[in-house]
Amino acid sequence: MTRAVIVGAGIAGLATALRLAQDGWDTLVVERSPTRRSGGYLVNLLGAGFDAAEQLGLVPALSPRALGLFTTVLVRADGRPKLTVPAAVAEAALGPRTMTVFRADLETALFEAARDNTEIRFGTTVSAIHQDADRVEIKLSDGATEEADLLVGADGVHSATRTAMFGPDHRVDLPYVVAAFPLAHPVAAVPESAATTFIGPGRTAAVVNLGPHRSSAFFTYRCDDPTRDMERGPVEALRTAFGDLAAGVPEALRHLETDPGSAYFDRVSQVRVPRWSTGRTVLLGDAAWCVTLFAGHGAALALAGADQLGSALRRHDDIPSALAEWETGLRPEVVKRQALARRGMYQYAPPSRFHVWMNDVTIRAITLPGIRGLVRRGIERQNR
User: Fold this and answer.
1) What does the pLDDT average to over 289-303?
2) What is the domain-level CATH number for residue 336?
């Protein structure tokens, strides 16, 4: 039986384990964290991401957890509304084959689907990697040594596997910080089944009210020294960057004070590696390509990448050939998403008030009935 060791129990790692196990592989997942993570941000599954969720058998488990579409109210700093984007606009633009869920719920669905046929070791890291033409030897922090036909580095944007096998200079840090966290209780200042979103020069704050344990907050901002803000922590950093806002932001930040560990809080980075594989070792998900939250397709690409990797390995007996074919097929989509993310920075952190005004004009245009079809066709073209 062919064996794979997968580093990382996030979306990319669990999806890879699930797909390979479905194809008869013996799979082991090792995860640095001592327990499964909770919280996180909203993820959209559309295009190839929705197709992969369907192929992996996740849709029945995800459907009850789907958050659905909601109205978005763009607001000024003092909370006064500027314009409203009805849920019907998003529905018309995105079409029926899309799903929005919390990242933690997607990881839970993957974990529950994979755990019966995959060994998962938490609190475990890789100490050393040695490979030849026939096998990969992986030494683990628990003292074990594993031999495998394939090693998959799915350990995120700060991937130790990438550093060990490809060197340290492939992460491109950008001058932005992002934070997202769940809200156990809705924020009173945000209408029910809606989100309030403030977009100003260099920053965005959004608070979503979809009911108890279905609400969340999202923040991103341009920052001259992201390392300093990482050291300060999410509570102090977000208070400094967003403390002047209304429209549910103060209450969301008070919630964060009670549970700062629930926040995803990191600098924004992309990963650009000339090759995603070497020999029998391959990178997948954010470890390989990290398109950033500005692109909005990280989870979808992780699922699609895992599913397509499984298909390539099924077609080839020679693993390096399978990895090369897989990368050739997927890389153009990743390059496109990374470029879209760079443009997305102007949407989430506009450099000036003029850019904010241009964003408002664009959003107003999208709400016009005659424009919705054009937007939908544009999204469909992007997701082909």
Assistant:
1) 86
2) 3.50.50.60
